[in-house]
Hints:
Blueprint: H1 2-16, H2 20-152
Amino acid sequence: MASKVIEQSQKNNKVAGKPEEEAENTAPEVSENAVDQLEKLRSEVESAYMAYMKSQQKVAAAYRERERQEVHVYKEIEQQANLAYDQAIEQAMTARDKAEQFADETCKRAKEKARQSYNESVDQALKTRQESIEQAWKVSRETSEKIWEIFTGDGKATG
């Protein structure tokens, strides 16, 4: 491309009536201008590439930060779940202990009632037995007295 620019410049110089030496002196200026433009373009591309790399680093950093936040949120939720679990276990143990205590107290009361009922039944049976024995003894004595009266001949029995 630079050679075409030089040739065009030489043709323009000849047409205008300038000697070839002057044409050669102006040709390097044109090529330096082209080099400067290329250098400027290369610099812009390099700046754009550096900006791209910085952006890529920022995106990577943003992804790492998001991942860190997600891990933090997960750990927080896990901690809350563990706390809720611990509280539920504690409540269940408290309820179990209360139920066991209630069952023990109910059992003690039931045993006490059973003992009391047993003792009352034994006392009643003993009383009934005693009354039956006394009644039988009374009947036996009365019968013996009557028989004895008959045997001894007391007059009351013949009558």
